[in-house]
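dude i think i finally got it to work??
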Amino acid sequence: MKKALTAALAALMALSLAGCASVFSKTYFSHSQYESLPRETSAAGTVEVDNYIELTLAINNLVTEHAESAVLHFGSYEGEIADDLAAACREVSTETALGAYAVDYISYDLDRIVAYYEAEVFVYYKRTAEELESIVSVNTAAGLYEAIRETLASMGERLVAMVGASDVDEGAVRGYVDEAYFSDPLACVERPEARVNVYTGGGFQRIVELELDYGASESALSSRRAVIENTVSRLAGYVSAEDAAFRALQCAVALANECAFSEDAPGTLWSALIEGRADSEGVAAAFKAICDAAEVECLVVEGRFERAEHYWNIITVDGESYHCDISRAMSLGFANTFLVSDSQMWGSYWWDDQDYPECDGPLTYASLTAPERPPETETPPPAESVPPSESPEAAA
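look at this
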C-alpha cells in the first residue's frame, strides 16, 4: 500500500514546500490529482490525519517549518497507526533530501484517548532555521549551474541548493564549479577549491551543499582583480584588427609577450598576467580573459596533451571553431598551434568532445597570415610564421 502511494506522496511533499520562504517559495513538480492535506482539528496545535500520506506529509511539514513538535490526531485513521507512525518518521528523516540534510532524528509518544489515538511528534535538528531559510531552489541541473556561476561571480563562499535532478552528484557539482570559473576567470580571480556534500533520499530531489575556498580573503581577491583587469585592458588595447580571427591572434601575441609558459608555475591569472609565468591552465585562462575583453568568442578546454593534464582554448569565428594552444605556441610558435582542427589535434591531445564545439573550420594560421596575392602573380610567396616574441602591433 505504502509503495503504491509513493508518487502521490512525493508530489504532496513537494507541494507542501511552497508555503515557506527561499527554497520553499517554488513548487518543484506536481503529477498527482490527490488533494488530501493534513487538517487542523478544533484543538489548537493538533493536526488530524486519516491515512499514511497525510501522516507523512504532516511530519514533513514540521521539517519544512523547522518546528520542534506537533500533536497528530488519529480520529478515523485507515491503517496500523503504530507501524505507520514509525515508518513515516523514518521516511521523512532518511528518505527525503530535506530530512537527510536537516534532521538528526524524530521521536514520538503515541497515546490512546478513549476512542482515538493522539501522537506528539518531536523533531531534533542538525541545522538551524536560518540554514534552512538560506536554501535556494532550482528545478534543473542547468539551474544549479547558474546558481553556482552567480556564487562565484560574487565570490561567495557557500551555497546550499535544492535541485530536482536525480543525476546531480559530487562529481557533477565540481564540474559545474570548474565550468563556471573558466567561463569568466576574471569574476573570482582564483579557481576555488570546492567541498561538496549531496543529500538525497529515495526520490529525485537533491540538496547540494557547496563550500568554496579561493585561497584568499574577498578584499584581497578584489584588489587582485583590479590589478588584473588593468593588465587585461592594456593588452586588449593592442588588438586593432577588424577580422575576428586576426583579433584572436593579436590577443595571443600580446599574451605571449607578457607571459612565459612553465609546467612548474602556478595556474592562475595573477601568475600569468602579473608575475609573467604560468602553466597551461593559467595561460588558457589569461587568453580567455583577453579575448573576452577584445570581443572574441573563446572557451577554455580541460583535457590532456601526451597523457598529461593540459589546458588550451577554442575560439569561434564566423560560426566556425578552432583550437588554439597558446602555452605551446610560446615555445613552438603559432604555425602548428593556432587555428587547429579536431583531426589535427587527435593523437597528441585528448578532450571530451561532447563538451565542446566541433572544430573543423576552413581557416589555418598559414592562410590567416599569408600576404595577399598580387593580381599578376599566380603563385603567392610562402607564408612566414609569426614568432611568439613579435609585438601585437606587428601582428596586425
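The first helix runs from residue 6 to 16.
im so relieved honestly
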